[in-house]
Amino acid sequence: MPAKLSVNVNAIAMLRNRRDLPWPSVEALGRIALKAGASGLTVHPRPDQRHVRFSDLPVIRALLDDEFPDAEFNIEGYPTQEFFDLCAGVEPDQVTLVPDDPSQATSDHGWDFRKHQDFLAGVIGPYKKMGCRVSLFADGDGDAEAVAIAKAIGADRIELYTGPYGGCYDAPEQAAVVLDGLGKTADAATALGLGVNAGHDLTVSNLPALLRRIPQLAEASIGHALTAEALEFGMAETVRRFRRACGQSI
Q1: What are the residue ranges spanned by the domains of the chain?
Q2: Would you place residue 231 in the very low, low, confident or very high pLDDT band (cuts 50, 70, 90)?
Q3: Residues 39-64 pLDDT 10s
Q4: Are 12 and 227 spatial neighbours (Cβ–Cβ below 8 Å)?
């Protein structure tokens, strides 16, 4: 099965937020992406609302419910009470829990599952009772024991943090090393029955190699590179380009 493509609209919202104006519209560009075949939309509502705003969430939920009922809503965030309440208000299909400090510019590491095992075990249950699939952000370092902890505490999937892989865009030998770690992590997850997602700095160029190594990849969540390409090719054509890179037939 080809990997599904979830379009992360944070970069669109960040561009909108540069002015006190309603454009570019997260809703309108999300609609274009979904019409072009994206399988869902991803958001990361940070506490300072510097990317998507809290007010964007019900708008996206309504877009999906009214026009694209088969598409999924994936919400990323650090599991505070405020984040839980935001999720409860819009009932996402998937929640991706990330170990972000509010001061971080973007997600830049996975969970330390050994250190945060008890904390995560205590927060996963309420999301699952809400009806959400729970994915945990994970480093792709080949640590099978860490992946086993994610399974034991109730995760449904892990999302491989692919930032280091994307950062090797001009260093193919290093990219191969990083890809090997990602692949070993994915293999360990699959052996345990965990689904595998991936996200961060994925591009049309580096997705095919990732899919060859991890053919079981369920979903790629892509925002920065996709939004950058949309400035050149338009949102609809860019989604089609990324769908092809994910192995989908267009």
Answers
A1: 4-245
A2: very high
A3: 999 999 999 999 999 999 999 999 99
A4: yes
What phi and psi, each to the nearest 5 degrees, are found at residue 156? -95, -35
* Whole-angstrom distance, CA of residue 87 vs CA of residue 11: 20
Show which residues are catalytic: 44, 76, 200
Query: What is the CATH code of the structural domain delimited by 4-245?
Result: 3.20.20.70
Of 49, 182, 177, give the one whose Cα is nearest residue 110. 182
Contacts with 235 (C-beta within 8 Å, 6 or more apart), sequence order: 29, 32, 33, 36
Query: Tens digits of per-residue pLDDT, 12-29?
Result: 999 999 998 999 999 999
Token duo for residue 162: 């692919």
Q: How would DSSP label each residue in the chain?
A: -PPEEEEE-HHHHHHHTTTTS--S-HHHHHHHHHHTT--EEEE---TT-SSS-TTHHHHHHHHHHHH-TTSEEEEEE---HHHHHHHHHH--SEEEE----TT-SS------TTTTHHHHHHHHHHHHHTT-EEEEEEE-S--HHHHHHHHHTT-SEEEEE-HHHHTTTT-HHHHHHHHHHHHHHHHHHHHTT-EEEEESS--TTTHHHHHHH-TT--EEEE-HHHHHHHHHH-HHHHHHHHHHHTT---
pLDDT tens track for 165-183: 999 999 999 999 999 999 9
Find all residues with CB under 8 Å of 128, minimum gap 6, and list them. 134, 154, 156
